[in-house]
Design goal:
Length: about 100
């Protein structure tokens, strides 16, 4: 699916499903740790705590790593288009300057 030069940006299926990939990866890691913990301790409380902690840690680490990746040309174009469509912001005024009449 190609983008029209002046048309609105339509994300690809891969871009739409990317968050699900991160959640799925974190879930797989949590299940793995849960199975290992359950096999070692036979305690459901420790298993659930360990699996939940691993899920959260892996999800946060994946999100931080994603933020470190530079956007490619299509993402940069989308960001530029979104900024161009946004209404202009007022410049912050220095509180020490006298009011303009």
């Amino acid at each position: 699916m190609t983008q029209q030069p002046g048309g609105p940006y339509q994300p690809s299926r891969r871009e739409v499903l990317r968050p699900a990939e991160y959640v799925g990866g974190a879930a797989i890691a949590a299940i793995f740790v849960g199975v290992i913990t359950l096999a070692g301790t036979r305690d459901w409380t420790i298993t659930l705590i360990g699996a939940g902690a691993v899920f959260i840690v892996v999800l946060v680490v994946l999100a931080l790593l994603q933020m470190a990746v530079k956007p490619d040309a299509s993402e940069r174009a989308e960001l530029d288009q979104a900024e161009a469509e946004r209404p202009e912001r007022l410049e912050p005024r220095d509180p020490d300057t006298p009011p303009v009449e």
